[in-house]
Amino acid sequence: MLKMLLLLIVMTLLLIESQSSEQIITIGASLSSEKMEFEFQQAVSHLNAKSKQRHIKFQSSTILMDSNPIRSALDICDKLLTQHVFTVVASHPNSTDHSPISVSYTCGYYKIPVLGISARDSAFSDTNVHTMFLRTVPPYSHQADVWVQLLVNLSWYKVIFVYSADEEGRAILSRFQTLAEEVNIRIEPSIKYTPGEKNYTSVLEPILKCTSRVILLSASTEDAEKIYHDAELMGMTGEDWAWIVSEQAFDAYNIPVGFLGVHLVNGTNEVNHIKDAVEVIGEAFIRLISSDNISSPPTGCNESESWSNGDDVYNALKATKIEGETGQVSFNEKGDRVNPMYEIMNINANRRAMSVGLFGHKDQAIGLRMMGNNLTWPGNVHVKPKGEKISRNLTIVTLVEKPFVEVTPLPKDGVCRPVYPAKHAFPCKNGTQDLCCMGYCMDMLAKISKDVQFNFTIHLSKDGLFGSFERHNSSDKKYWNGMMGELMRQEADLIVAPLTINPERANDIDFTKPFKYQGLNILVRKTQKDSSLASFLQPFQDTLWILVGLSVHVVALVLYLLDRFSPFGRFKLAKSDDTEEDALNLSSAMWFSWGVLLNSGIGEGTPRSFSARVLGMVWAGFAMIIVASYTANLAAFLVLDRPEALISGIDDPRLRNPNEKFKYATVKGSAVEMYFKRQVELSTMYRNMENQKKYYTAEAAIADIRLGELQAFIWDSPRLEYEASNDCDLTTAGDLFGRSGLGIGLPKNSPWTHDVSMAVLRMHESGFMEQLDNSWILVDSKSNCPESNSAPATLGLTNMAGVFMMVAGGIVAGILLIFIEIAYKRHRGLKEKELELARNAADRWRGNIEKRRTLRQTLQKQKEEQLKANSFQKQLVKAPSHSTAVNSVAPKMNSNNTGTKTMIPPPYRRPSLLEATRERDCLPPPPPMDYPAPSYVPARSGRTVTWHNPSHSTDNLV
C-alpha cells in the first residue's frame, strides 16, 4: 500500500512538472460571425494536432467584430487581452467593409501583432501608424503590379491614369509610377477627380486631347458607374480605346464591353484566410520558441508598458512563408502580402466577366500568364487597339551619309527626280533649304511606307549628328543630341538613317529589326612605290647591275685579245685562196658580248679561235642564268606587286601604340565612339582619338584621308566599302570588328514599332534588302577601279614606264649620234675634196709639163726635118730643071721693113706646135672672175687619175 502511494505521488509530480514546462500560446481573433469563430477554433485545433512540438500548445480566444470602432476597441481590451493573447487575427464587421482599424491601434499600442485577413486599405501599409499590422490579403494599391505587367504584355507604354483624390487613389498612383519607370511606361496625363461627384464630363474632356488611348481607372464602384456613363456619352468606350480598371470599378453594373480588370483569387474567402493566418502564426511561434524564451503578453489595457517581445513576434511573422489555401503566403517589409494570385478579367460581348489570364505565384511560376488572344476589346472588336491616337502623317529625321542618304538641290520646278541607281527621290528640308533626298534608306522608306500605309515628311538633323550623351550648360545631367535628341523631344516620329543599334541608344528609344548587319572597318590610303620609272631595275640590286655591266665589257675585251693573238684567229675564205678574213676586232667583240647577254641574233663578228669560243660558251651560260633570274624576280616585283594597306587591322601596333605622326579618328558622338569608350581593351585608342582633331561628319574625315592629313578612319563597313569601291586610291584594312546592326529608330513604345519592324522582316524575306545592297553598295561601283583587291595585279604603264623611257633614250641617243656622224662625215669629205683638188692640180701641172716636153721634142724633130728640108731645097736649087716645081711648093718669104725675111707657111698647112704654143692659139682664154670652177670627173685607174676638161678639144692639137 505504501508503494502504491509513493508511485502515485511520483506520477503526480511528473505530470505537474510536464505541465509547468509546456508553453501555452493563446491566439486571439476578432471575426465577423459566429461561423468564422467556429472555423477559427477548428483551425487552432488542427494546428495543435499537426504540431510535433509537445512543449507548445495553442489556444484560441475569439470575439465578434463590432462595427463601432470604440466598442471594438473596448472588446479587445476587456475580452482578448485579458486572455494573454500573443497575437490577434482580425476580420471586418459582418455585412460591412469597415476596416479593423481599432484593433490595429489598440494592439499596436501594446506591441501585440495583428494579422488581418480582409483589410485591403492602403492605409495599413503605413508602418508609422500601423506598427504591428500584417495581412494575408494585398492592399488595393498592389493592383498596380498587375497593371504594369499587363501593359508590357500588350505593348502599351503610354497611358492615361485616372484616380480618386483620396488616400487609396494616391497610393495606387504612387506605386504605379514607381513600377512604370522601371519598364519605361509613361503617364501622358494623370487626372485626379473628386469622389462622389454626379458628373465627370469635365474630368474626362482633357483625355480627348491626348495621343494615348489607354486609360487606367482607380475608382470605387459608385464613382465608376458615373464615369462609365459619361465616357460612353463622349465616345470614349468604343473602338481604338482600351480601359484597365481596378477591382472595385470592375464590379460596376454598367461596365462597358471590352474592359479589362483584375480580381484577387480567394480574396473574399474568409475561411481560407483564417486557416492560412493560423498556420502562419503556428510556424512563427514554433520557430521562435525553439530558439528564444518569450515573456507573457499584457493582460489588459490597464498596463502602461508594452510587450517586450512584441517586435520579435512581429518580425518572426513577417519572415514566415507557407503554401496555404490561398496560395503562397509571404510578407514584405511593410507586412503586406506579396505574390498573391490575381485573375485577369475581361467583359465579353454578353457583358459577362471572363477570366483571360493569371498573375501571381502558382506552381513555381511567377508573373503574368495570358490564356490565348481571344480578348474582347471596346467596340466589341477582337483586334487589339494600338493604344495611341494614330497619325498617318509621320515626321522622318535623317542625315547625309553615303550611300544611305544623299542630297541634291531641289529643281526649279519643285519635282525631285531620282538619279541612278536611286528609284525614289523625296523632298526634304535642311533648315530653310529645300533639297531632294535619295539613297539606300530612301528606297527602303518608300517600301515601308507603302506596306505600313503612312505618309511622311523628311528633314535633316539640325546638328548633323547621329546622337550621343552630352552635358548642357555645364550641368551634371546629360541629354541626347543629334537625331536621338530630336526623337526624344518628339520632334520626329522615325529615324531613317544608318543608325547603329547599341545598348546606350536602346535604353531610351525603340529599334526595329536590323535592316542591315555590319561591322566596323578602317579606311586608309593605298601605298604606292616610290621609284616607278625604275621598277624594271628592282629585281637586281645596284651592285649586281654594276657587276653585270662590267662583266660585259671585260668579256668583250678578253674575246678580242684571245682572237687577236690566237694563231687560229684568221681563216681563209672558202671561195678564195688568196683572201683571208680579218680577226675579231674590239667593236665586234663588244657587239657579240651584248648580243649574247640580251639574247639577240649575232650575224657577224663571232669569235674564230677555239679559246675565244670556249669563253663565248661560258658567257652564254652566264647570260642564260642572269636573264632567267631577272625574269623570275621581275614577276615577283612587278606582276605580284600591288598597292597595300598602310595597316593590317585593328590589332596593328600603330593603332594600339600610336605616335604623333600616325593619326586616326572616328566621328565624334557616334556609335563607333561609344564602342571604343565601352571597350576596356581599346581605351588607349579612345584616349588618343580624344586628343586628335575632332570630326563631326564622315565626309570631313574621308576628305582628310585623301589629302594625307589623316592616316586611318574607323567607321561603319558599308560606307567604307562604298568609298573604297569608288576611289581606287582608298582601301579598307583588316577584318571587320565590333559587329552590330543598323535599325530604324522610333520613340519608346511607339505604336509603329511592331508594324515597321515586321515590314523590315518581310523585305529581308522577299530579297528586297539584297537588291538594295547590290544597287547601292556592292556591284556597280566595283567597275570604276582598274583592278579588284582580290585579283592578281597586272603590269601597267606606271610599272614599265622606265623601259619605255629607256627605249626613248636609245632613240634620242641614235638621233644625236647620226647627226654627229653626218657632221663628222661632212668635215672629213671637205678635207678629202681639198686633197683631191690639190692632187688634180698636181696632175694638171704634171700633164702640162709632159705636154711641154712633148712639144719640145716635137719641135726638135720639126727643126731637124726643116733642116733636112732646107738641105733638100738647096739641092733642088742646084738642079734648075726642078726650079718650077720647087718654087711651087717652097714657102713664100715675106720681107718687112727691117729687111728681115720671114717664112710664110703655105695656106694648106696648120701652124706648128711651136708656133701655136708661142701664139697661145691652142690654149683656152682665161676664165672670167665669177666663172665657177669646172666639175672634174676623175676616172680612176689604180692610183693614176686622168682629168678631162670639157672646154678643151683635141681638134686644136696637131
UniProtKB/TrEMBL annotation:
One Pfam family linked to the record: CaM_bdg_C0
Signal peptide bounds: 1-21
Annotated positions binding L-glutamate: 498, 500, 505, 716
Membrane-traversing stretches: 544-562, 614-640, 803-824
GO BP annotations, alphabetical order: ionotropic glutamate receptor signaling pathway
UniProt keyword list: Calcium, Cell membrane, Disulfide bond, Glycoprotein, Ion channel, Ion transport, Ligand-gated ion channel, Magnesium, Membrane, Metal-binding, Phosphoprotein, Postsynaptic cell membrane, Receptor, Signal, Synapse, Transmembrane, Transmembrane helix, Transport, Zinc
Site note Crucial to convey clamshell closure to channel opening, residues: 647
Major location category of this protein: membrane
Locations listed in the record: Cell membrane; Postsynaptic cell membrane; Postsynaptic density
SUPFAM superfamilies assigned to the protein according to its UniProt record, in alphabetical order: Periplasmic binding protein-like I, Periplasmic binding protein-like II, Voltage-gated potassium channels
Keyword Nucleotide-binding annotated: no
Domain Ionotropic glutamate receptor C-terminal residue range list: 393-779
One MF term in the entry's GO annotations: metal ion binding
Cystine pairings recorded for this chain: 728-785
Membrane topology term: Multi-pass membrane protein
Protein name: Glutamate [NMDA] receptor subunit 1
Naturally occurring in which organism (per UniProt): Biomphalaria pfeifferi
